[in-house]
């Protein structure tokens, strides 16, 4: 059965009942969106401050490969399994982006028997959060061009506007556009471009904001561009945009409740890119979940070098979160890919390649334990073609590393297939929870922070940048030196070369560009070409998506 | 008190309770969106087919002026008043567009004590319908450019693509753009443009579709452009876009229930432009309301020459609706404006100007009775500065025309202020309901239909067009000759000159361009420049919109 067929066969319970039954949340604190989605009211969220926090478990992965790893399914499977073994657990996931749904990647509501439902709603508009983010972003863009057209009293340099427009669609034709064509009535001609909504700084802001006040302040301090001197920033608050932007986000800031196939609560909220943004769900959702459950399982984007690093150095630092353990997802197939096997040969047993590919896992395990100071469990996301010999080798190697590796079969079996994983993980967080450290201190210079990430986490031998980039960082040190770094590099490798599989070492990380995300409160350091607007493939997934006369959707995956 | 202050003081009742209490709709047939908005499930809507229809009352207006007329407030006030005098009435309104909220015009949820609530939600994202329409539209646009980039097997002529992109924002810089810049990886460079979401053909389609099947068929037959011969159309279904577009609209097609300040049910659903589209709420909403209530009060955009004409000749014809009466909204101020008074002098009594301006009202009354064959009641939307002499003159003149004119004070007094209007209107529809006729027969040629509208309704002496336009219409006659005409002209005058107030006659209507809206099922005839993407003013309303730490919104109007 396809994911959507499994999802449509689920017996969902009314979310208002489920929230009361599972988490003790009275229905008056919920805004329903249909019968199976709801938003938690902010008053209630804010009222939870004094309750003790549950344990936070991060699910991350080895460096991604085309073979697929399964962070979301593992997060859902582990959450369901924890509930099965009698623990009160909630999952915190990211919201899917519409663009990839119509492109290659498909949706992001888990898969197999480890899914969140209603799958169609979650993958399509959900509760409208991304639409609200897109409109808030584009309102600011419209106000910028209108300001210039109306006489430009702020002296915005039209050549130095860095605030692009966004759309929640894979639309490569919009990457670079020229706007304001058609004569004086349409304003001034200038170059512009579109990003996908998940790449918007408004998304990062919504995910990091602690409350409405913080949200509005962050929106107000967005730097939209500069004056002609190239140095004097223009803020969104200079355009009086932040009040209306925050008003547009009044519901988007409220965490969304849904359920898994096994009727456990998942909070799905926010979904920033994991390259030019920090790639985790909202601080509001995570903090709320920690008040409502004893165990909170959450995920971070891409591999641990990007997702876990940013989760810890950006999100946990800003929000004061203390994760207790990290689950590192790996598959035999992906490890073989890291060991040099081609995608089409991954279903063949290959112990030599597996052993070679283990270098990637080993580096991630090392980073998690040594640099982040957290206990680590390897979750082997089981695939049908995995052989006993491969699994045995993988477990033996993990044992040599002193890390527990558990085979998890949640994709095929639901929570039941991840019960051992749940026992191992809960055993660790109950008995030897970690105390995480940061990869870099707040007081290092911006350049030193970049160096720390590249050398410690990526294993780089050198970090380089053009003098222009270095002087820009130096210029920012006074005012923004306390900001963490948000590294934008390929997720496919520890290095900046997506083809360097395994655990490359001694490589050079070249920082091509740096950007100030002043509303989000971090500096984006870009190593390599970052795609912030995907394209559609030759046969887009959209061609297969359909709805019948009774409203049943097919072809969504 | 401002509109938003009045709205925020309202005592709203839970919409699920209200729908049951007022209309007998069981909560199982509703999808809640928060506690005060809900969508009617399609299964339920479809199950109502056998119930008898209530009476349909159209609220329209004299030709709009900057003085304001008040169609939405009158629709709400009349609906509340009908309920007050013991009639079971539901209002059918259009959804507001976000763009104008941040620009000059503000929201569209009524005003004073004749409002629908929750006002902030209705004016901002509401239930996400417009976002869904925007994404469905932009998905098709992305598929078009992707198709060309991937080799263009359909041979779409990039110079002849008529499917633009949309955004729900007043953003003049996007009216004309160049896309696909930046090299081969970003596709082919071509000219494009953005319309505001309400101008999308997807909006018109959603508003005219009778069910999901019809929706999908209409989406599939959208003409996105032509092959190099300039004649062979490319349809959305050729790009396999319609299934995914319909899936994106699965919730948008469901009518939205909210309440008035007086806790009566209003259905707010759809909101197409009244110039290049037909300017009324959805067929689904109107038909559902007719099954649920004895009286349905609905509105159509702009003045009766555009709104009422399209309501009758497009919407009622396609959907088989039979309105029983028309309420024509007029204000003393607007009539004085039509009589030549400047905006700043409208608060001064001026009987001569009022009498002169009455020509506009007289023409609309004449059209409604003679050309549409419907009984008409004039609703004088009362303003504080109206003098007794002015009101008396207006009523006397209406009496001479044989039309009842009732002073309505719903803006200041709510439904109570429109009780007399409610008694007069219900008396007419109960005792002498109209049987409407069309302005033109379906079998006329497309050009003859345009002539019929221009000469009968606009009072034109001549209708002209370039040979190119006429030959285009002639070429369409075979396949699309049965389509109605959707006239796009200025709303400010019966003529195509916005400055020709009153009731111009003998003027020439020049058709500049014609467009095939094959999904909507009409031919757009454009007389004059039509703005399908508004701009923001020097001080946009957005600058005053704010939200406080507790989530209370201010500055929205």
Automatic annotation (TrEMBL), chains A, B:
Catalysed conversion reaction: (6S)-5,6,7,8-tetrahydrofolate + formate + ATP = (6R)-10-formyltetrahydrofolate + ADP + phosphate
Chain sites annotated for binding ATP: 65-72
InterPro entries the UniProt entry points to: Formate_THF_ligase (IPR000559), Formate_THF_ligase_CS (IPR020628)
Pathway where this protein functions: One-carbon metabolism; tetrahydrofolate interconversion
Keyword annotations: ATP-binding, Ligase, Nucleotide-binding, One-carbon metabolism
Example of a GO MF term: formate-tetrahydrofolate ligase activity
EC number: 6.3.4.3
One annotated GO biological process: tetrahydrofolate interconversion
The family this protein is said to belong to: Belongs to the formate--tetrahydrofolate ligase family.
Matches recorded under NCBIfam families: PRK13505.1
Protein name per the record: Formate--tetrahydrofolate ligase
